Amino acid sequence: MASRLEAVYDWFDDRLDVDDASDFAGKAFPAEDSYLLGEVALFCFVVLVSTGVFLAFFYEPSTTAVEYEGSVARYQGQEMPAAFTSVLNITYDVPFGMLLRRMHHWAAHLFVASIALHMLRVFFTGAYRNPREPNWVVGTGLAGLSMFAAYTGYALPYDEFASTAVGIGYNVAGSIPLVGDPLAAIVFGGSFPTSATIPRFFFMHVFLIPAAIAGLIAVHMAILIRQKHTEAERDGDVVPPGSSRPAADGAGVDAAGTGTEVADGGRAGIARDDDSIVIGLPAFPNQAAVSAVVFFLTMAVLSLLAGFLPVHNIAAYGPNDPASTPSLIMPDWFLMWGYGFLKVVPSWMSVDVLGVHISSEFIGGLLLPGLVFAGVAVWPFIDRAEEPEHFSLNPLDRPPQTAVGIAAMTFVMVASIAGMDVLVAEILHTSTAELRPYLTAALVVVPVAAGTITYAVLGGFGDDDSDDASRSDGGEGDHD
Ligand code: HEM
């Protein structure tokens, strides 16, 4: 029996180099909880694709008027766009339709949230530095695509609220100097909303963008496997389980019970500052078990959210009505900062340069968000490390970088509050016109203040101890 199994193994090994794959089974995953955020994002993507496939069986990407025959009494017998009626059907008449629609919705939110948190973990621990800059840039692309995925999905039910919000995107796209009008016509299928908009968005939402995300995730993972994870600084030299030999340069600490993986099969110790090897759980079976737990926890959270929290109530909004505009329009929380830029950039900022019109809508809606993304993408080349760095850093030991990170987070938060200016004005019993200059000023002042305070609290002004400490810990490496 055993020899038959070996023969089968050899057959596959000849063709697929399975031995190489079993090397991967020994790849080490540092046992850090915050390193699981990327996995949460990954599992959300899996849930998004699987629930999306279910929804696509019942969704009709068309604005052709059809008679509604479903169970929402208010609309029975009415002629409404097929896209809208099909989402009503999914929600109220298709078995498990409401649950899976809600799961798709909450998975989209958790996807973006986990990407943002994952990105913050990578940022604050300096894991973007040499040699991981390419993966940081790929990640930035993934963050942008995840937002486009959500935006295009938002339009699909073709209800009054969503189509008005999506129309804002049409105006922003049209505001791009020189190429705006043709580009908006290509993406939106003519001047929004036309009968071509929904089929085009459907194609982008279910195929183009997920395929691009899947491709980039594959590149992201391939780079990760090739480069290995960063690892938190070790407390001391490490003696692998079952070995009594200390590390070459000193007494070791016992790593028994951590599933330590070492390069030479577990015999020799590893010096504290040896970054040629990662200490952590082997991919199989230990990390696979942890990942399975993360997967089921992600599913459990999404099921709970879907079970208890309703999503975008299209029956209440009704089908798209070109003749009316809902009183309060706001995008989802993760697009709110971009909407905030649109609100705070004053119309007098529109200029004509060499006969080309640069509108305030373009500045707020595309230029500023574009600059934020560009800033994120080039950051590892600003905070450059000349030599490869494989240990992650403590954010408390890096006042400048941590201050920049806190300032950037505050900037996005203030911009998001500006996006909710109608609500803020209501709470403060004032008008949005009166509020706006304050929001514009806050967008500059609050992040600068937050960054400066962070820098001061971490000893950036004059306290050299923290810097020296991190360097002597072997973490900081050579920086420009
Ligand atoms: C679809 C979105 C994404 C998925 C599924 C994903 C997945 C992952 C996973 C599973 C890991 C390994 C475990 C971990 O460190 O969490 C990882 C590492 C990494 N990710 Fe992402 N990620 C995504 C987006 C991003 C973004 C937006 C950035 C930054 C802009 C980024 C930058 C990185 C870097 C630099 C590493 C290596 C970190 C290290 O070695 O410590 N990723 N990613």
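^ protoporphyrin IX containing FE complex. The first strand starts at residue 28 and ends at 29. The pocket of protoporphyrin IX containing FE is lined by residues 35, 37-39, 41-42, 45, 115, 118-119, 122, 127-128, 132, 135-136, 139-140, 142-143, 217, 220, 224, 229-230 (CB under 6 Å).
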